Please model this.
Amino acid sequence: MKRGKVVKSVLRILACVAVVALIVGTGCVNSLMFHPEACKGGYGESTEGYVDIGTNGVKIAAIVLGPEHSKKAILRCHGNAEDAANSLFALRYLARRGFTVACVDYPGYGLSDGTPDEEGCYRNVHRLYDWLVETRGFKPEDIIVDGFSIGSGPATELAATKPVGGLVLEAPFLSAPRVVTRIRVLPIDPFPNLKMIKDVKCPVLIIHGTDDSVIPHGHGKELFELANEPKRFIPVEGANHDDLVFTMGEERYLKAIEEFAREAQQAKPLKETMR
Model:
């Protein structure tokens, strides 16, 4: 009897230690993953396209450019050292070409309330999706989701759980911790793109630099292999992480996204993988 009590006590202690380790580990992972202070510049409520799409008194800041009503919307999920305003800089061209382009700040980023975490990123991106459907009147199949770097997490999750017209991933990862560990070593695995990509049923476009020193090129290539058809992979020779668009060339980059959006809208099979 005493031995059984000792075993139970030890198990309870181990369970408590595991819970504490999970809580501490989650906090450490969040502090390593998110860097809202790294956003350059910043913007205000007078910035072109600013809209607060929050509910219940919680501010969720977004920037929406282009026509109020158009045939296609591009929902952008920004990277780590970005906010909604500067993330849409390269996509302004598509707004001038008739697309509605929109991006939302994650919690704690830009002008959004809160502290960043995985669920908060999902929540804010879902809120922008709902706002585009309910307020702007877009059909789900007319929304293209585009995620860069850490934004590939909420972008993939949205495409896996909501009907969308297409998914663009730029410099994506298999999961956030695997950028460092390559394999799962923690009880949590934030932004598990390698699992969620299998539930994405829309066309997929992945763009990744071959010399990416932040998220290795192999992450994008492996996600491409895991993705369902139709899909396309564009390796950008010599591109690192933050110069992906510059190395690819802004014209080629925008053309790739525009063509993808139009092909997805027409529900045609995508062209072969671009080399």
In short: The chain has a mean pLDDT of 84. The CA atoms of residues 213 and 240 lie 6 Å apart. The two ends are 69 Å apart (CA to CA). The first strand starts at residue 50 and ends at 52.
